[in-house]
Design goal:
Order of helices and strands: HEHHHEEEHHEHEHHEEH
CATH class of the largest domain: Alpha Beta
Number of helices: 10
Shape: extended
Number of strands: 8
Largest sheet: 6 strands, mixed
Structural class: alpha/beta
Number of domains: 2
Radius of gyration: 28 Å
Low-confidence stretches: none
Distance between the termini: 47 Å
Helix content: 40-55%
Length: about 300
């Protein structure tokens, strides 16, 4: 199955069902109840109920590297009887489907291999994806093996290079699996009467860990830019003073071109004065509309 076809299959299956990536949602329901779900969890349930549209997430370099890593592992597992991108299903509720899209599956041994391309060690990956790994056991799989690849994302995308792979067989955790089943039972019991109100104002606790990390990374970089812009402003004034002191008009090197722009007068149209003095003009006839792309505003504290 091609990558885009696989993505389309995953999007289609999200309506009316829950997969391995939703496992943590059910553990949360079992431990905290349906009324204490995050906005992300509520939105996911609304998609499964058909009340909201499931949309494809734009592919990031990290996601592309993860898929490239799967292609690398495919060469290692092909001769061992593993098939790539297999959907596993188990009917655990009459209200919604429960399934998983296994990276690799061996039907003869009923074994799943889950692939992750990360910067952290296998223990960190194991903890981050623990619910998803146990979800496979809940669906009836005999063995679950984690392949954790390491390397530079750009190298992975350009050459398929992998620095090293850590491999660990995941132990079955019956207590955790019982919690997942409990979460499924609880959600199914309120499925028909459940009213979803995702809300438009979220807090970081409503986000998935990956999304929250990305936002923290963005705001950290914006703070760095603010500091650099303040430093650059001071240096710009110092260099302008240098140009004025020695009457320099331009300074050129292989890396930059700095040109001195002298003081000038800028002319603009005083629209307020024009409207006040020429009330006979219907200015609405001269308004121009242009489409503005969607964006986000960020205010740092």
């Amino acid at each position: 199955m091609k990558k885009q076809e696989h993505k389309n299959e995953i999007l289609k299956s999200r309506i009316g069902g829950f997969g391995g990536s939703d496992a943590r949602l059910f553990y949360t329901i079992a431990s905290k109840g349906v009324n204490n779900l995050s906005a992300t969890d509520l939105f996911r349930i609304s998609v499964a109920k058909g009340e909201n549209e499931s949309k494809s997430i734009p592919e990031t370099p990290a996601m592309a590297a993860g898929y490239a890593f799967e292609s690398y592992v495919e060469k290692l597992l092909k001769k061992k009887g593993f098939e790539r991108e297999v959907k596993l299903c188990s009917k655990l509720s009459d209200k919604f489907d429960t399934f998983a899209h296994a990276d690799f599956y061996n039907a003869e041994t009923n074994t799943v291999v889950e692939c992750k391309f990360t910067q952290g060690n296998i223990e960190k990956t194991y903890k981050s994806y623990y619910a998803q790994l146990q979800w496979y056991y809940m669906l009836g799989v005999n063995r679950v093996i984690l392949y954790n690849g390491h390397g530079d994302i750009n190298d992975m995308l350009m050459t398929g290079a992998v620095e090293n792979i850590e491999i660990e067989e995941i132990e079955r955790d019956e207590i955790f699996i019982d919690s997942l089943r409990t979460g499924i039972t609880l959600l199914a019991s309120v499925w028909d009467d459940l009213k979803i109100d995702v809300g438009e104002e979220w807090t970081p606790s409503d986000l998935l860990a990956f999304d929250a990390d990305n936002i923290n990374l963005l705001t950290d970089k914006l703070r760095q830019i603010e500091r650099l812009e303040a430093d650059a402003k001071d240096l710009r004034e110092q260099i302008k003073g240098l140009f004025e002191l020695y009457n320099i008009k331009s300074l050129k090197s292989d890396n930059y071109l700095i040109t001195y722009v002298g003081e000038s007068v800028r002319e603009t149209l005083d629209t307020d004065k024009l409207k006040k003095e020429h009330k006979e003009i219907d200015f609405s006839l001269y308004k121009k509309q242009s489409k503005v792309k969607s964006s986000i505003k960020i205010k740092l504290y």
